[in-house]
Specification:
This protein is of the alpha/beta class. It folds into two domains: about 350 residues, Glycosidases (TIM Barrel, Alpha-Beta Barrel), CATH 3.20.20.80; about 90 residues, Immunoglobulin-like (Sandwich), CATH 2.60.40. Helices cover about 30% and strands about 20% of the residues. The protein is built from 13 helices and 22 strands. Helix 9 links the parallel strand 12 and strand 13. Helix 6 runs parallel beside helix 7. The longest helix has 17 residues. The relative contact order is 0.10. About 5% of the residues have low confidence.
Length: about 475
């Protein structure tokens, strides 16, 4: 065979080996489920660690300038997903008093000709949604959209026929925007309006095959309870909720885990078919414990850190943060705010927890990503309960163990590759790393976290192959 024939043959083989592989619809910006079904990747195969913020009322409460300020802040703080309601109420209006739908019918979006922000008659509710989505796109942010909040469906304001027409409208309007994720549901059990939720999910998938879809469930429940086998549901989402252990009212639910949000992730992790899972709404920073009694203590930055590290180390592919004032875009002029917010949203965006969330993402991404598994066998001896629980995860060449209280704990070495490991402490409050030393990678070793044991003296023990 001459050289030209060899080159031709090589080209043909290369074409069939690589050229026929379908490229992601949005290129490198596409979001895909990883091959092992546990994580998300971008179109170029890189890990995507979902760091979300609940900006639920963004479309309705903020004007163009305020929306830009909020999105830029979240970009700078390392967030990459904004969870937001398209329709909080049916009907609803935005800050410019534009109505979203005609006669409270979601199948009839109120659309005006043109899109001119300087002309109120040519800039409607949906133009404003477009503006914010496009601004997020410019900043590299994904928008996780809830089509219609669950209370509207439970109140019978949306029927199956209306839901189908509305979902078709949304899918066709946004199917070509790369930065869309669909959150069906909205703080609701799948069993409350099942026909509507199935219709929305199936219609979105039929008309928009290139964006991820999940279901945002009610507090203390998981989407997998209803939609684990739904072909339109790409990944699982839990809402671990806002109540303390002693406030839990879900004793009659299938899942009853109190504040232990890692248990929801652990339960999803065992299900078939395998799907990625995430806590899409844990307790918000500065919201009253139990929500409705504003005299109750409030959740702090330490609490949102605990929920984050617990869930991710238990196997979640990311984490969603929330703040009481930010999720509702609270302003002092609001007459009836929910859950007693103290600071305006423009101040609350700088709450301690919001600044600290990026450190979780920064910790996870530098390590090998897709081989990571939860592994409680790393914790030697009897593990603690509730706040004393140590949660562990590892890859082939590293292990991470999180303690919320900073009490001593023992580790079973030898679970990762290498004859020796180097150990260090990672501070979830600052992202700083402090070296401990190097050890033979076998046997059981006790570690003593810095500081005095206390709730919120949380640390991550990092063990890495030398």
């Amino acid at each position: 065979m001459n050289i030209k024939s060899k080159i031709f043959l090589l080209v043909v083989v290369s074409f069939f080996a690589f050229g026929c592989k379908k490229k992601p619809h949005f290129g490198d910006k596409s979001l895909l489920v990883s091959e092992n079904g546990r994580y998300l990747t971008t179109g170029d195969g890189k890990p995507f660690f979902w760091l979300g913020d609940t900006g639920w009322l963004l479309f309705g409460r903020l004007n163009r300038e305020e929306a830009n300020t909020y999105l830029e802040d979240r970009k700078q703080k390392g967030f990459n997903v904004i969870q937001v309601m398209v329709l909080h109420d049916v009907p609803s209006r935005n800050i410019y008093l534009d109505s979203s739908v005609v006669h409270a019918d979601v199948s009839k979006p109120m659309i005006t000709p043109g899109n001119n922000p300087k002309d109120s008659l040519a800039y409607d509710y949906w133009d404003h949604v477009d503006y914010i989505i496009d601004k997020a796109s410019e900043k590299g942010l994904y928008m996780a959209l809830v089509p219609v909040w669950g209370t509207n469906v439970k109140a019978k304001k949306v029927n199956k026929t209306q839901a189908k027409a509305y979902a078709e409208f949304l899918a066709k309007r946004y199917k070509d925007k790369w930065n869309i994720i669909w959150l069906n549901g909205g703080d609701i059990k799948g069993s409350d309006g099942m026909d509507v939720w199935k219709t929305i999910g199936e219609t979105l998938r039929a008309n928009d095959p290139n964006h991820l879809i999940t279901f945002h469930p009610r507090g203390r429940t998981a989407s997998s309870q209803w939609f684990q086998n739904a072909s339109w549901c790409d990944f699982d989402m839990v809402q671990s909720g806002h109540r303390r252990y002693d406030q839990d009212t879900s004793k009659n639910e299938k899942l009853h885990y109190g504040e232990d949000n890692w248990k929801y992730i652990e339960a999803d992790y065992k299900l078939k078919p395998t799907k990625p899972t995430i806590d899409g709404e844990p307790s918000y920073e500065d919201i009253p414990q139990g929500l409705h009694d504003t005299t109750q203590p409030r959740w702090t930055d330490a609490d949102v850190r605990r929920y984050g590290y617990w869930s991710v180390f238990a196997g979640a592919f990311g984490y969603t943060y929330g703040h009481n004032s930010v999720m509702q875009m609270y302003k002092n002029t609001d007459l009836k705010p929910a859950y007693g917010p103290k600071d305006q949203w423009i101040t609350a965006i700088n709450a301690p927890g919001a600044k600290q969330m990026q450190y979780l993402k920064d910790l996870m991404l530098p390590h090998s990503y897709f081989d990571r598994v939860p592994d409680q066998s790393l914790v030697a001896g009897k593990n603690g309960e509730k706040y004393e629980r140590v949660i562990a995860t590892r890859g082939e060449e590293y292990a991470l163990l999180y303690t919320y209280t900073g009490k001593n704990f023992s580790v079973q070495l030898g679970k990762t590759d290498g004859d020796d490991v180097k150990a260090s402490w990672f501070d979830p409050r600052t992202g700083k790393v402090t070296a401990i030393g190097e050890f033979e990678n076998k046997g059981i070793k006790e570690f003593n976290p810095p500081g005095e044991p206390a709730n919120g003296n949380d640390w991550v023990l990092v063990l890495e192959k030398i």
